[in-house]
Write a structure and sequence with these properties.
This protein is mainly α. It has two domains: 1-48, Orthogonal Bundle (Arc Repressor Mutant, subunit A), CATH 1.10.10.60; 58-180, Tetracycline Repressor, domain 2 (Orthogonal Bundle). It is built from eight helices and no strands. The protein has helices at 9-23, 30-37, 51-73, 85-97, 99-105, 116-130, 132-155, 165-180.
């Protein structure tokens, strides 16, 4: 009879996340996580079939954390689309403060299904303000803008006279434009 696991999946994820945040995706290996937990690499296979499954679980966890951060940033009396700028700020804050996790979540090889709950949150947030027909296209526009800004910020381009205030100006313009499109 096989031995029961001596570690829990949450412990594995916690150590994998610590490795990810310290050194990026390349530092997350089954051997490195096992070493941190003081177990053999085979012990991790009780919970994750391979490294890709472990990375997928990290990305899914990150999406959940991002969704929670966005939900916590929704102003209590937000009615207009332009009232949602704190949600956009929370998205960018997550990308800035958790760059390795954000990169894993948005990597080309990431499973697109992990963003499902976040996408549902975005639609739930936008539908009352724009209607069901426009919520999806506005969600894509906002997500594309914020992801683009996050990518630019990772490159550190705001120097040499390029004002960082352009990010806020662009967001205000986008939100107003999306709000007024059907007006």
């Amino acid at each position: 009879m096989p031995q029961p696991p001596k570690i829990h999946a949450d412990e594995v994820l916690a150590q994998a996340l610590a490795l990810l945040e310290e050194g990026g995706e390349g530092s997350v290996t089954v051997r490195a996580v096992a070493a941190r937990l003081g177990v053999t690499p085979n012990a991790l296979y009780w919970h994750f079939t391979d490294r890709e499954a472990l990375l997928g679980a990290l990305a899914a966890r990150g999406m959940g954390e991002l969704r929670d951060a966005l939900a916590g940033a929704v102003p209590p009396r937000a009615e207009a689309l332009t009232d949602l700028s704190p949600v956009a700020a929370a998205y960018l804050h997550f990308a800035r403060t958790r760059p390795h996790l954000y990169a894993l979540m948005t990597a080309p090889h990431a499973d697109p299904r992990i963003s499902g709950e976040l996408w549902a949150f975005v639609l739930d947030l936008l539908t009352p303000r724009l209607g069901a027909r426009r919520a999806a296209e506005a969600g894509v526009a906002l997500w594309a803008y914020l992801h683009g800004v996050a990518g630019l910020e990772a490159m550190r381009p705001f120097h040499g006279g390029k004002p960082e205030s352009g990010v806020e100006a662009g967001l205000r313009t986008l939100l107003r434009g999306l709000e007024q499109e059907d007006a």
